[in-house]
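Minimal example, chain plus zinc ion.
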Amino acid sequence: MPLTHSDAWQYFTRSSDKKSATCNLCGANLTYMGSTSNLLNDVNNKHQSSAFSNDPQSPMSSFVSTPKKVSASESERITCTTVKD
Ligand SMILES: [Zn+2]
């Protein structure tokens, strides 16, 4: 089930200049130009499992309160390592 535009702001924080937004889940900084499409793509492509997970061991609040400042590639590597382990 894809996220709707209004859902995007649950996962992103708009920058002060309103031209970009930071992902609360992976810290990625994405261009935001009047459309949340870019933002929703990040969530749908990278975070769909966590976005829809009800796993109490990984609550959304932990991501929101301490966003990781890592690049997308680093984030994916970490995710892969975690999965393999
Ligand atoms: Zn992200």
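The longest strand covers residues 20-23. The pocket of zinc ion is lined by residues 23, 25-26, 28, 42, 46-47 (CB under 6 Å).
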